[in-house]
Amino acid sequence: MADWFKNKAFIRNLAVSLLAFGGSYLFRILVVDPLVGTEDAYFPYYPLIITVTFFLGYRFGGLLTVLSLLIVNANPLWMPKNRVFINLVFFVLCLASLWLIEQLRSLLSREKYLRQSQTDLIAMLAHEIKTSLSGIQAAASSLSLMTTSELAEGRIRNQKRAIEEIRSILDRCIEADRIDAGCMLPEVADLSVSLAIDEAIRQQQETHRIKLDCPSKIRINTDPFILGRILNNLIHNALQYSPPDSTITLQGFADRRHGKSGITIRCSNRLSSGSSFNPSKVFDKYYRGPEGMSLSGAGLGLWLVRSFVEILSGDIRCRLEGREVLFLLWLPLSP
Questions:
Q1: 76 and 201, same domain (yes or no)
Q2: Cα–Cα–Cα angle for 235, 232, 115, nearest 5°?
Q3: pLDDT per residue as tens digits for the range 53-69
Q4: Mean predicted confidence (pLDDT) in 237-241
Q5: CA angle 269, 226, 293 (to 5 degrees)
Q6: What pTM, to 2 d.p., does this model score?
Q7: Overall number of domains in the chain
Q8: Which of 59, 80, 101 is the last residue of a domain?
Q9: pLDDT for 302-318, tens place per residue?
Q10: Residue 111 vs residues 103, 146, 199: alpha-carbon distances, Å
C-alpha cells in the first residue's frame, strides 16, 4: 500500500477519481434529488464507477463503490423501506461489474501486447530480409559489370526485378501493419499535383506507357509521402493488369465534392484480354483476381490506396466502362 502512494501515476489517478466522485455527488444533490427525490441516490455513482474502473482499474472502482455506500447511507433523508436490499444489490452489482471490466481490461492489454509483438516481428523480419536482399542486389550488380553475355545480363536483370518486387511486398506489409495499428498520421505540406504525379511515374518500370495530363498550376495541401504511395500503387496496378502495349492515362483537374474544393486524379487503363474484374472487391484486403494469382504481389496495393485516401480525408472510386478500368481519386485542397 505504501508503494502505491510513492507512484505519481497512482496519485494522479486517485485525484481524478475523487474529483469525479465529487462532481457526481454535487450532481446528485443539486439535480437528481430535487427532480426525482432521494430514492435514486445511487443513480449518478454507478456510471461513474464503471467509467473509472474501465480507464483506471478495479482499485479505483472499488474505492468509489465504498465511498458511494458511505455517502448515500450517511444521508438522513435517504430512508427507503428496503434499504438493506438496495445496498446489497448495488454492492453485488458493482462487484460483478468490477470483475467483468477487469477481465475486459486484461483482454485488451493482451491484445495490445500481441499487436505490438506482431508489429515488432514484421519490422524485424523486413529489416533482415531487406539486408539480405541488398547483399544479393550488390552481387548481381557486380556480376552485370563482369559479363558481356546477353543471356547472363537478362537473367541478372530478372533477378534485380525480382528483388525489387520482394522489397515492394515487404514495404506494403509494413504499411498495412502501421495502418492497422493507427500509426499512420499525415504531415501536411504544400505541393504541386503535376510534380507529385510525375515523380510517381518516374519510379515505374514502363514510363513510356504512361500519359499525363495535369495543369502545373494545381496545388494541394496534403502529405507528400502518403500521396506518393497512393499514386505509386495506382500506377503500378494499372501497369500490371493491362496489356503490355497499352497506354495508362493520368489526368488531374480541379473538382468540388462534399461541399469542399479539391482535385480529382483520374487513372484509366485497358483490361488484359480474358481478364475478369470486380470493381466492388478491388479495395478488399488481400483480394486478387483470378489472373492476379500468376503475378507477384500480396493483394494489398489497392487496399492501401483506399486506406491512405481515408487518412487524407479523400475519396476513391472504381468503375468499369467496357474494357476500361477507371479509378477516380478525389482529395481536398486542404485537410
A1: no
A2: 130
A3: 999 989 999 999 999 99
A4: 86
A5: 45
A6: 0.62
A7: 2
A8: 80
A9: 888 899 899 899 999 99
A10: 12, 52, 39
